[in-house]
Amino acid sequence: MLGMTQWRKEHPHATWAEIEAAVDERMNQLRAQLIQDVVQMGESEPWSEMPPEERPTCATCGKPLSARGEQTRFIQTTGGEAVKLTRTYGTCPACGGGFFPPG
Ligand SMILES: [Zn+2]
Question: What is the Å distance from ligand 1's center to 28 Cα?
Fold first, then answer.
């Protein structure tokens, strides 16, 4: 599981602390991967293709946003792993506000 069997073979004399650290590292990676997967589930299609009434709206004035292409950012999780997010970035045609959906 999670490569721990192999790790244990390579570290037959690992201390409790070393085992704990190795497990923590894998849990953090798994956690980050899971967060990324769950977040990406929320955006299966680019909303630039959607009709205006289904698009995200401006937080300031409520107008449907204009898509401005994809942007990728990395978010640090509490476990210390970075989660990569790719989102369609939009701007408001009415007030010019930028918008990057959080998830
Ligand atoms: Zn606006």
Answer: 38
Examine the pLDDT at 1 and tell me if it is beyond 80: no
Distance 40 CA to ligand 1 centre (A): 25
Pair 83, 75: CB distance under 8 Å: yes
Q: What is the pLDDT of residue 100?
A: 62
CA of 75 to the centre of ligand 1 (A): 25
Q: What is the CA radius of gyration of the chain?
A: 20
Distance in Å, CA 33 to ligand 1 centroid: 33
